Amino acid sequence: MTSHQLSSGDLTADRRAHYAHLYAEADDLGAAVDLQVQALELAPNWAAGWHGLGGYREKAGDLAGAAVAWRKVLTLAPVDIFGAGLKLSLTGQAAAPSIPPAEYVEALFDGYSDRFDTALLEDLGYCVPERLTMLLGDVAGAETQFAKVIDLGCGTGLFGERIRSRTSWLEGYDLSQGMLSKAFDKGVYDRLGQADILHGIAAARLKNAKPADLVAAADVFAYFGDLDGVLGIASGLTTPGGLMAFSCEAGVDGVDWLLQSSLRYCHSESYLRLLAERHGLSIERLDREAIRRDGANVITGLLVIARKQSDAGLRSVVPPALAKTSTAGAEKH
Question: Which CATH architecture fits 3-95?
C-alpha cells in the first residue's frame, strides 16, 4: 500500500496527488512537493497525503520538512499504518522502536500480496526459502520427514511449497489476511491462521498447538528489532530435539540490531548466537550469503539452522496418527 493509492475524498486533491506521484516517478521532486502541498491545502486532514509529502521531501533532501509531514501523519492517524514513526526515527527525530507497529506490517503486506511472489522471485532474486530448505537437508538429512512443521510469517507460502513434501502436517501463520489468502490458494497448508507472532501465536500454542519438529521463519525477523521475544516464542513451539530454520538480514557485529532505511531490521551474528543460547537452541549451521537484491545493491543475510536442546533426537519417522488432512480455509486467532 502506498499513500497515492488512498483517496482523500476530494476529487481535485486526489488528481493533484496523482500528478505529484507521476512527477516523483520522473524524479522531478520539486514539482511533486508543490503539487502534494496543493492537494493537502484542499484536504488538510488526509493522513495518507501527508505521508506522501514526507516521502517526496525526504527524497528531495528536506529531512526537516519530511519530519514535519510525518508528525502530522501521527497526529491524524495515531494507529501508524504508514510507518511514519519508523521514518521519524531514521531522521533522528525519534528513538528507533524495537518492533514496528503491527498495523503497519499488516497494511504493508496486504497491499503487497497480489504481486509478492513475482516481485520477490523475479525482480529481487529472493532465495531464502530455497536456501533454508537446502540447509535443512544438510543438517537433518535430505530424506528426513518432519512430523509437523510450523511456518511463522508464512506469507504467500513460498517456504511452505518447498517443505510440503517433507512433512505430514504443515501449519502457517501470518499477520496479513491478504498473504494468507494467497497461501490458501496454493493448497499446500493443512492449517492457516492469522496471528501476530508475539501475541496470537503464543495464545494458539497454549490452546491447541502441539510443538513441531520444525519451526521456520523465512525473512520474518527483518520486521523485528529486538528478537528476544519472538525467538523465545519460536523456541517454545519447537519440540525438544527439533529444528528451527530462520533468516535475518546481516548487520555489523557489535550492534545487536539496527533499523535500516528500508524500514527493515538487520541483526549481528553475535546477537543471534547469544539469543539462541538463551532460548535453549544450539546453532548447527549459520551461513552468511546473498539473499536478494535491492536495486543495485545485494542484501546479505544470515541463514540459521538451530536445534532445540534435548537428549531426544529429531523424529525422522512420521507417526501414522498424523496422516494429512486439510482445513476448509484460513482460521483467525
Answer: Alpha Horseshoe (1.25)
